[in-house]
């Protein structure tokens, strides 16, 4: 019984030492993580704008093909592609302004 108590005491002291050493860098770690995440927003925003431009070009070609072939569903296709491009641009702008 005495041997078992020593093991429990040793485990508790080890956990307390680990916990005490981990608390020292908490604020510095959070600050560094925040700085790293916010540094990614500008390149990510530019990437989303580029993806929106490519989606817009592909949508323009698809709408032109439907319009040229006389498809009656051209307006619906144009609205959906245009909406997707607007969503990408607005989402990138809002996320950037929300987090920075």
UniProtKB/TrEMBL annotation:
InterPro entries named in the record: DUF4134
Residues making up the signal peptide according to the UniProt record: 1-22
TM regions (residue ranges): 46-65, 77-99
Keywords from the named record: Membrane, Signal, Transmembrane, Transmembrane helix
Name this protein carries in UniProt: DUF4134 domain-containing protein
Species: Sphingobacterium bambusae
């Amino acid at each position: 019984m005495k041997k078992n108590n020593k093991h429990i005491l040793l485990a508790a002291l080890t956990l307390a030492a680990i916990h005490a050493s981990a608390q020292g860098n908490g604020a510095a770690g959070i600050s560094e993580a925040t700085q790293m995440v916010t540094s990614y927003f500008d390149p990510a925003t530019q990437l989303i704008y580029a993806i929106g431009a490519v989606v817009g070009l592909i949508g323009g070609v698809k709408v032109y093909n439907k319009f040229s072939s006389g498809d009656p569903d051209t307006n619906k296709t144009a609205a959906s592609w245009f909406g997707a491009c607007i969503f990408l641009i607005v989402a990138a702008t809002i996320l950037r302004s929300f987090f920075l």
